[in-house]
Amino acid sequence: MRATPAVERVLRRVDTSEADACWIWPGATTPDGRYGVVGVADRRTRLTHLVTYEAATGSAIADGWQADHLCLVTLCCNPRHLEAVTQAENLRRQHELNTHCVRGHEFTPENTYQVPTQPTNRQCRACMQLRSKARHDPEARAELAKTRLQPDVGRLRRGNRHLLDQPKTEATP
Ligand SMILES: [Zn+2]
Ligand SMILES: [Zn+2]
Question: Do 73 and 12 meet the contact criterion of CB atoms below 8 Å apart?
Fold first, then answer.
């Protein structure tokens, strides 16, 4: 009897109904709670976002490379939100994000909202304003859409696109 491939077990448990949304892993995580883990052979575990990324691209992440979450949601397993980068580049991006939000606004004391109950949750006030404006202002909506999230879908193998498009039923003309 063959075990169900890890990628299938991951995709079964995340909500993939929206192709471009974050696919949040609801199961076990690394001890720091940041990344999802799934059991594989020999009682080992693998990071869930690596499993889906490698299945979608059809190749393993090389040594010294990491899959960077462009969406900044580390529990997200949507391969569209991941980009393979070197460790150095990942660190550089993390450093940049310590000083600027995902849309490039600087985290000055005036522009930073510290969520009271969540010490690690810091919000950009400029983006908060954009979000409330976006409800009735198309320009604000366009501005809001400009994150560093640029899904690298072109690299995904044609044969594995189904991993992305899986439950999405696209209206065909
Ligand atoms: Zn995501
Ligand atoms: Zn911002």
Answer: no
Residue 167, pLDDT score? 45
Ligand nearest to the CA of 149: 1
For the segment(s) 1-86+149-161, the CATH number from 2.40.128, 3.90.520, 3.40.50, 2.60.40 is 3.90.520
- Span from the CA of 68 to the centroid of ligand 1 (angstroms): 10
Q: Where are the domains of the chain?
A: 1-86+149-161
Question: If you measure from the C-alpha of residue 153 to the centroid of ligand 2, how many angstroms do you get, rounded to a whole number?
Answer: 25
Tell me the ligand closest to 99's alpha carbon: 2
| Confidence (pLDDT) at 172 | 46
Long-range contacts of 42-47 (CB under 8 A, 24+ apart): 46/6
Identify the nearest ligand to the CA of 24 by its number: 1
CB count in 10 Å sphere of residue 133: 14
* 162/153 Cα distance (integer angstroms): 12
Mean pLDDT, contiguous 10-residue spans, the chain (173 residues):
84 90 93 93 93 91 89 90 90 86 90 87 91 92 74 52 51 47
Going from the Cα of 69 to the center of ligand 1, the distance in angstroms, rounded, reads 7
Q: Which ligand is nearest to the CA of 128?
A: 2
- Among the bound ligands, name the one nearest to the CA of residue 130: 2
User: Can you give the pTM of this predicted structure?
Assistant: 0.69
